[in-house]
Write a structure and sequence with these properties.
Number of domains of chain A: 1
Oligomer: heterodimer
Number of strands of chain B: 2
Structural class of chain A: mainly alpha
Distance between the termini of chain B: 29 Å
Helix content of chain B: over 70%
Largest sheet of chain A: none
Order of helices and strands of chain A: HHHHHHHHHHHHHHHHHHH
Radius of gyration of chain B: 19 Å
Shape of chain A: globular
Helix content of chain A: over 70%
Strand content of chain B: under 5%
Number of helices of chain B: 4
Strand content of chain A: under 5%
Order of helices and strands of chain B: HHEEHH
Structural class of chain B: mainly alpha
Largest interface: A-B, 137 and 82 residues
Largest sheet of chain B: 2 strands, antiparallel
Number of helices of chain A: 19
Strand order of the largest sheet of chain B: 1-2
């Protein structure tokens, strides 16, 4: 989940990890995903361009990213258990939900003693972005029949970023598989390790584990915050809504209502302008030159430029 | 515990359903620029809300936990220095843990 991937993530890792991966390196599955894909993508793209890493290395990229991000499962496992979930519950989430942001979100609400219904709704809402990734990936992977059910499990931020960075469909499929397998194994083993480790810890707070969740979320959206004024306003509004409603609504519900900030941001963004703003923008057909841009259904990477143009009107 | 299991199962099913739906839904849904923009901004709004809530609230109350806030401050500093994700997390947790060990809570 985690993605501190903007340029930051790219730093030293950039050297070790292939271009596309570099961007996403820090993300956790999915969560990172969301936000990250953009940042990551952008970083990856930049790195790729700079290094002229034309040669696709789908397997190496996928494995590198899978290992780097998968280790974050340690944080999830520890956070989940210290939130009140059992080791089994933490493992079931990692095995079958397999989307970092949602997993952290659910654990966070449970830790805060919030409503399970609200926590579940928030986690699922956060997972909705994967539908957008799937939308984009189905065009590249073209999963058929029963395979579609297995492919679906792997549709998250990181796999999307690496897959869409590949130059051709064959490499893309290889990249998806490599990233999915490596990240899946690492994330799950790390979750188990983190959960077992946390179980032996006395007070989670003594180890600062209560800061892991919020710090991870901030790191995940960080690249997005740097991509445009609209993103910053939406983030501030979302945080404000959540804090403002906390005293009066059931725990967990304020966070879901924060989605209205995204709705406002989307409505405030001039629709027609997207097309002309920047190449690579969302309007661009996905597979253009920019790998992940189009890659993320969310159009994250591309989002930045466009949003910039909209800023004026937003505020 | 049963309640948590239900939450875990429903969350798992919901998250998987969204992934599968994406592979199944017609591409034209994303053609609408507003839908696309909304999809891009949802994670930003939700994650910012989560980060704020978990940093500053406890139950229904706004709470200022010095160690936790210091941890978040350290995380922001790490992000500004472009630290990798894991480093950000370790720095944040480490800062909070160190302050608590020092008696500040």
């Amino acid at each position: 989940m985690p993605p501190a991937r903007d340029d930051g993530g790219a730093d030293d890792r950039a050297a070790a990890i292939p271009a596309p991966a570099a961007g996403t390196a820090s993300q956790a599955p999915t969560t990172a995903t969301l936000a990250q894909a953009d940042g990551a993508t952008a970083a990856g793209w930049a790195a790729q361009t700079a290094a002229q890493t034309a040669a696709p290395r789908p397997v190496r990229d996928g494995v590198a990213l899978g290992l780097a991000v998968g280790v974050s499962g340690l944080a999830f496992g520890a956070a989940a258990v210290s939130s009140g979930l059992s080791t089994w519950q933490a493992c079931v989430l990692s095995l079958l939900a397999f989307t970092g942001a949602s997993q952290f979100a659910l654990a966070g609400v449970i830790a805060g003693g919030g409503s399970l219904v609200a926590g579940t709704a928030g986690a699922i809402l956060l997972g909705s972005r994967n539908a957008l990734y799937g939308l984009r990936l189905s065009d590249v992977l073209r999963p058929r029949g029963p395979r579609r059910f297995l492919t679906a499990l792997g549709v998250i931020d990181e796999t999307t970023a690496v897959t869409l960075a590949q130059p051709d469909p064959a490499s893309a499929r290889t990249a998806f598989t490599a990233t999915f397998v490596c990240l899946y194994l690492t994330w799950n083993l790390a979750t188990l390790g983190g959960a077992l480790g946390a179980g032996r810890i006395g007070s989670p707070q003594a180890f600062g584990l209560d800061v892991v969740g919020p710090a991870a979320f901030l790191a995940l959206i960080w690249p997005r915050l740097k991509s445009g004024r609209t993103e910053q306003l939406v983030a501030l509004a979302g945080a404000g809504i959540a804090l403002g409603l906390t005293p009066v609504l059931p725990v967990g519900v304020p966070v879901i209502l924060a989605a209205t900030a995204a709705l406002a941001g989307a409505l405030a963004s001039p629709v027609g302008s997207a097309r002309s703003e920047s190449p690579g923008d969302s309007a661009a057909p996905a597979r253009s030159a920019r790998p992940s841009a189009s890659a993320s259904p969310g159009g994250h990477a591309p989002a930045a430029p466009p949003s910039r143009g909209r800023e004026g009107r937003v505020s | 515990m049963t309640g948590i299991w239900i939450a875990v199962v429903v969350t798992t099913a919901g998250c998987y359903a969204f992934k599968l739906a994406g592979l199944t839904v017609p591409q034209r849904v994303l053609a609408n620029p507003r839908v696309r923009r909304f999809a891009e901004l949802v994670p930003v709004a939700l994650l910012a809300a989560l980060a704020a809530s978990q940093s500053l609230t406890s139950g229904h109350a706004i709470e200022f936990d010095p160690a936790r806030l210091a941890g978040m401050g350290a995380a922001i500093a790490a992000l500004l220095l472009r630290a990798p994700f894991l480093v950000v997390i370790v720095v944040a947790a480490g800062t909070a843990a160190a302050l608590r060990a020092a008696g500040i809570s």
